[in-house]
């Protein structure tokens, strides 16, 4: 227990979820929040839970706070300096390493699912989940069983807002789904639910009349003081987004997307979205040792100092070299040179070489000289490059 004389503030964040696979209706795949709801051991778990024995409040189905912290979160208009102590709810570990261990027996298949989820975060950010050793006081424990399923306890220094110490965290599991593990690891890294962003009303509507009586508090927005958005836009595809029917009383939608194309997408992410990755890279300053660089298409500089852009198929990929704008620091006060475009010459179709042999470069120059420059020998010193999809 940390005493008041230490000038530290206890900030306890509980994340609770039973990671189980249940029967999924053939007509429509279940969203992350529906899986969480199905995993509840009783209907009481869907209510606002306050445990007077330990002073904890449960909200949004998989997050539990101390009652005093919860009250602070609800006081949105409070501008006292004390609010600055609550700001690190978008917390981070003191280092980029997050140790883990298994507390009970897990099948090989279950461990592979957990490892694959951690590998995704490891590959695309500078976070490194690694096996814990005897020297690790702070770690995650994956535990197979029933009951309270996941909790984490963090202590932050009041001014520096860095993680100082934490007891063990437990994840209880029967059969693990990757999307749920990615979601809960997102909480462990420091992410809130996407639909609680301060700008969410621009992107989704919350239909209060469809929400179970007494549970509307689960749709509270976080203020910018509580939840740092790191200059990212709202993300319907986020692994942290819940589905359309969260806490519905009548089977009607409670979260309606302003862009109707995303209505059946929210809550059903299977992989990390571009913004999930971008915000964690920013949170942990993954490009801190890289030269200053500006990336196109709302891209970001990753731990390998390369630009990464959104991709419809893989969610994230290296920005094509032809689009990368390089900015180098030329002075101690942040002065930069003018952006210069790196040029690339390559074929954009796998049949370019065959078509070139058929004299298509002359017969169809409008297409060929634009899309098959390499095969038509129009590179002028440029080079071909294969764009990779993962951060090395």
From TrEMBL:
Active-site residue list: 184
Organism: Octopus sinensis (East Asian common octopus)
Domain ShKT: 345-379
Listed Gene3D superfamilies: Collagenase (Catalytic Domain)
Disulphide-bridged cysteine pairs: 345-379
Keyword Nucleotide-binding: no
Name the UniProt record assigns to this protein: Metalloendopeptidase
Record's keyword terms, sorted: Disulfide bond, Hydrolase, Metal-binding, Metalloprotease, Protease, Signal, Zinc
One of the protein's GO biological processes: proteolysis
PANTHER family xref list: DISCOIDIN, CUB, EGF, LAMININ , AND ZINC METALLOPROTEASE DOMAIN CONTAINING (PTHR10127), METALLOENDOPEPTIDASE (PTHR10127:SF780)
InterPro entries: Astacin-like_dom, MetalloPept_cat_dom_sf, Peptidase_M12A, Peptidase_Metallo, ShKT_dom
Cofactor dependency: Zn(2+)
SUPFAM superfamilies, alphabetized: Metalloproteases ('zincins'), catalytic domain
């Amino acid at each position: 227990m940390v005493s008041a004389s230490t000038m530290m503030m206890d900030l306890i964040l509980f994340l609770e979820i039973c990671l189980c696979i249940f029967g999924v209706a053939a007509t429509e795949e279940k969203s992350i929040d529906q899986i969480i709801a199905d995993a509840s051991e009783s209907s009481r778990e869907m209510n606002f839970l306050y445990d007077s024995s330990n002073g904890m409040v449960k909200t949004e189905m998989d997050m539990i706070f101390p009652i005093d912290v919860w009250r602070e979160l609800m006081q949105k208009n409070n501008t006292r300096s004390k609010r600055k102590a609550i700001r690190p709810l978008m917390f981070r570990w003191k280092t980029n390493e997050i140790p883990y261990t298994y507390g009970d027996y897990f099948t090989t298949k279950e461990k592979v699912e957990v490892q694959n989820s951690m590998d995704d975060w490891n590959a695309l950010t500078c976070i490194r989940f690694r096996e814990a050793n005897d020297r690790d006081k702070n770690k995650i424990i994956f535990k197979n069983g029933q009951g309270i399923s996941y909790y984490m306890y963090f202590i932050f220094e009041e001014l520096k807002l860095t993680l100082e110490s934490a007891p063990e965290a437990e994840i209880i599991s029967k059969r693990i789904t990757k999307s749920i593990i990615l979601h809960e690891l997102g909480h462990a890294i420091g992410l809130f639910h996407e639909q609680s962003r301060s700008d969410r009303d621009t992107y989704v509507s919350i239909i209060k009349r469809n929400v179970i009586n007494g549970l509307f508090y689960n749709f509270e927005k976080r203020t910018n003081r509580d939840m740092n958005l790191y200059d990212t836009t709202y993300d319907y595809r986020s692994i942290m987004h819940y589905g359309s029917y969260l806490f519905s009383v009548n089977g009607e939608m409670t979260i309606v997307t302003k862009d109707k194309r995303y209505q059946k997408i929210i809550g059903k992410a299977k992989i990390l979205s571009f913004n999930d990755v971008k915000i964690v890279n920013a949170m942990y300053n993954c490009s801190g040792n890289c030269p200053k660089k500006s990336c196109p298409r709302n891209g970001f500089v990753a731990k390998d100092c390369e630009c990464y852009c959104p991709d419809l198929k893989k969610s994230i990929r290296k920005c094509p070299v032809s689009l990368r704008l390089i900015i180098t620091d030329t002075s101690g006060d942040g002065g930069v040179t003018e952006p210069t475009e790196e040029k690339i010459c390559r074929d954009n179709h796998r049949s370019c070489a065959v078509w070139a042999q058929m004299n298509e470069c002359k017969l169809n120059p409008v297409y060929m000289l634009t899309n098959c420059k390499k095969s038509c020998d129009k590179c002028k010193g440029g080079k071909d490059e294969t764009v990779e999809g993962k951060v090395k």
